[in-house]
Design goal:
Layout: H1 2-27, H2 34-50, E1 74-76, E2 86-87, H3 90-103, E3 113-120, E4 123-130, E5 133-139, E6 145-147, H4 150-153, E7 171-180, H5 182-185, H6 195-203, H7 208-212, E8 216-227, H8 234-243, E9 253-256, H9 258-271, E10 279-286, H10 289-295, E11 297-298, E12 301-302, E13 305-309, E14 313-326, E15 332-343, E16 346-352, H11 356-362, E17 369-374, E18 381-385, E19 410-415, E20 420-427, H12 435-446, H13 458-466, H14 481-485, H15 492-504, E21 507-509, H16 510-516, H17 524-534, H18 537-546, H19 560-571, H20 573-585, E22 587-589, E23 604-608, H21 616-625, E24 629-630, E25 640-643, H22 649-657, E26 661-664, H23 665-671
Parallel strand pairs: 2-13, 21-22, 23-24, 23-25, 25-26
Antiparallel strand pairs: 1-6, 3-9, 3-10, 4-5, 4-7, 7-8, 10-13, 11-12, 14-15, 14-17, 15-16, 17-18, 19-20
Length: 676
């Protein structure tokens, strides 16, 4: 009897440990403090030692790996690790190529070559080599700053530690994917949901000896910082990687033409299930490095590359209910609660219905049998309804005309540019009046691209909101930690960690701050443009007093839609108050105006007419790279009007009247010591 009781107690502890591991590895979430976790493990091991009849394949003494550490040292990437934009259809590819040709000002006969590389679904890492020696390895992190996981990466056999090839660069960050082969994953199935989680968990072990026990692989495909790299294009670089002793993907190809890209895509997709590793698409990169350089980046992805995702998996299910979710900008999104189905290894129980128009167009109703599609990490959605299977008593779904959260009227806005009503219906209340909007605003505020507060994820924001610990963004920085310590699931250590990460983020660059406010239509890129224009938080804040919103139109890239959104933001007294309060608790850093070569410093430009062999977008980048600015209209703030073929007469005339210098393409390029 005694024995049974002990067994029962032991099993319970193992079960709890399993649960904690699953949360940590698969969801990157800790539900107990580190201390509590370690204590649980110690208790299990001590029970095993005391009673030799206790055994479990899930015992911490049997399975590889401690809890991955959250406390790796952080380090900046010398060149950011970017992400990739996605393409799903042939049209997306055609568009991608068109945009590139436009940017480079080439006609459609120009042959672009792509390095095509299967996209392994693993964990990316950046390996710094100095003088041929592997010195440091970082995880991707947020792209700007990664975790120093050198010791763990050093256990991977595919990563050369010393490279003696003559043409190996003096310094280089070699980047690639750490992954686990599907056959090796079979032995780890108990612990992880998929090979990707297994690779991630193993890479983040506290003890490199634990990492060593897992057969991790590394495939190299790009680089970050480099000094002395002798390659003119991606394919040459991939070949060099092989010569230097790295593994590269055997399915990499050099291809031109979107039709051929599609052919290759079909070939690779057919091989997908028989490959040794998981791939979720194919990456296309413009092969020529000189063209890559000209194309540059947009937000956090290169203009010269795209990931062509594999078509999704589909399944059939029944709609049990239609729920309306309220987003940060008040958008009402209908979500279908469906009978759970397994699509490609993932249990799906929710599918987005996008918006009111989509529901009406497809006449989607509760009780309908539907085809659900799941593509990569995108939210599953409903593809079609099987009308033949519709129950006789089914009724049309009526979209609510009141916000389900705050009961305010819902509205469809009229878009002045497209002259159409929005497809999206919104809650008409202003910001923090609506509970759901408030919560979503707070989630956005702490999210990765904004304040990026470690340990303050979406679920915790919701919990703190419900407990009235935070209501407005400023409350985050005034949390009463004593209160939190008393909450279930919080230990001293986890509270300390939270306090530390919140305090660390009290110092924030203006662009992140503006983005974090969650102003509609002000994404990362626009926040950057606004911050460059305002330079200081004070200038931004003063905007409402000065009421000179129209001036914002001078910022190239900012249009009427964004301006009216910023205006609406300031029109709301609560927002003005939130800014005041945030100012008290934060240090908002001024934008440091880059003084690189500065050939065009303090000079502003506007282009009119068609240029030769160079696009407007590229001219804009060139101006900005050299510390100049671009504006979108002729005013006395303009220094140079660049004219091409068939310029707008009115612009030329106004420039003459205002005695603004008018130059042609050659003269402009000469200012940068370039010729066309
Ligand atoms: S290039 C600057 N090449 O995809 C371009 N990425 O969404 C960014 N990935 O974080 C990296 N295979 O983890 C590149 N052949 C490949 C890749 C690849 C997989 C992953 C990588 C990156 C993500 C970008």
């Amino acid at each position: 009897m005694q024995k049974d009781l002990i067994k029962e107690k032991y099993k319970k502890k193992i079960k709890l440990l399993n649960k904690l591991n699953k949360f940590y590895y698969d969801k990157s979430k800790s539900i107990v403090s580190d201390k509590e976790y370690d204590e649980l493990k110690a208790e299990i091991i001590s029970l095993e030692k005391k009673y030799n009849f206790l055994k479990s394949k899930n015992s911490p003494s049997e399975i590889v790996g401690h809890k991955p550490s959250k406390n790796f040292k952080k380090d900046l990437h010398r060149v950011p690790m970017l992400s990739l934009s996605n393409a799903f259809t042939e049209d997306d590819l055609i568009n991608f190529e068109k945009k590139i040709l436009n940017y480079l000002s080439k006609d459609s006969n120009f042959k672009l070559y792509y390095s095509t590389e299967p996209k392994i679904d693993g964990i990316s890492a950046s390996l710094t080599y100095k003088g041929g020696k592997f010195e440091k390895g970082l995880s991707r992190g947020d792209g700007k700053e990664g975790e120093d996981i050198t010791a763990n990466l050093a256990t991977i056999k595919d990563i050369p530690k010393v490279i003696q090839s003559e043409d190996f660069p003096e310094e280089i960050d070699i980047r690639g994917e750490v992954f686990i082969k599907n056959t090796d994953f079979d032995n780890l199935k108990e612990k992880f949901a998929n090979p990707r989680n297994a690779a991630s968990g193993s890479l983040r072990q506290k003890n490199p000896d634990d990492t060593k026990k897992i057969p991790l692989k590394f495939i190299a495909y790009t680089f970050g910082y480099e000094k002395g790299l002798l390659a003119n294009n991606q394919f040459d670089y991939l070949n060099k990687l092989k010569e230097w002793g790295f593994k590269t993907n055997p399915l990499n190809r050099l291809i031109s033409g979107t039709k051929n890209l599609i052919k290759n895509y079909i070939v690779v997709e057919k091989q997908r299930s028989s490959l040794e590793f998981d791939i979720d698409g194919i990456v296309y990169k413009i092969n020529d490095f000189a063209l890559q350089k000209r194309l540059g980046n947009v937000a956090n992805a290169p203009r010269w590359a795209i990931a062509h995702k594999f078509s999704s998996n589909k399944g059939t299910s029944i709609i049990l209910d239609i729920e309306i979710q309220v987003g940060r900008t008040g958008a009402l999104t209908p979500v279908a609660k469906i009978k759970p189905i397994n699509i490609g290894g993932v249990v799906v129980s929710n599918a987005t219905l996008h918006n009111e128009d989509e529901i009406n167009r497809k006449d989607i109703r509760v009780g309908d049998t539907v085809t659900v599609e799941r593509a990569g990490d995108v939210i599953p959605h409903i593809l079609s309804v099987d009308i033949n299977k519709r129950p006789k008593k089914s009724i049309k779904f009526i979209f609510p005309d009141k916000c389900p959260s705050c009961n305010s009227k819902t509205i469809k806005e009229f878009n002045k540019v497209t002259k159409k009503f929005d497809a999206v219906r919104r809650c008409s209340s202003e910001g923090y009046f609506c509970d759901k909007i408030s919560i979503e605003k707070l989630k956005h505020f702490v999210s990765k691209e904004a304040f990026n507060i470690d340990g303050l994820g979406k679920k915790i924001v919701e919990e703190f909101w419900k407990l009235k610990i935070i209501k407005f963004p400023q409350d985050i920085f005034k949390i009463d930690y004593k209160k939190i310590e008393k909450l279930e699931g919080w230990g001293k250590l986890s509270v300390e960690n939270l306090k530390y990460s919140i305090n660390q983020k009290k110092n924030i660059p203006l662009e992140k701050f503006i983005f974090a406010l969650g102003i509609r239509h002000i994404g990362l890129e626009n926040a950057k443009l606004l911050s460059k224009y305002f330079v200081t938080f004070r200038n931004f804040q003063k905007l409402s007093k000065k009421n000179n919103y129209k001036d914002l139109l001078n910022i190239d890239g900012i249009g009427e839609t964004q301006v009216s959104s910023v205006k609406n933001f300031f029109a709301n007294e609560i927002n003005v108050q939130v800014l005041k309060e945030l100012e008290k608790v934060l240090v908002i850093n001024n934008v440091i105006v880059k003084k690189n070569n500065g050939q065009l410093k303090d000079k502003s430009f506007l282009v009119t007419g068609k240029l030769n062999g160079i696009s407007r977008a590229e001219v804009k980048s060139l101006i900005e790279e050299n510390s100049g600015t671009t504006v979108s209209s002729v005013s006395n703030k303009l220094n140079y009007l660049i004219i091409g073929e068939k310029p707008t007469k009115r612009k030329v005339e106004s420039a003459r009247e205002l005695k603004i210098k008018i130059i042609n393409q050659e003269e402009f390029l000469k200012m940068l010591n370039k010729t066309s």
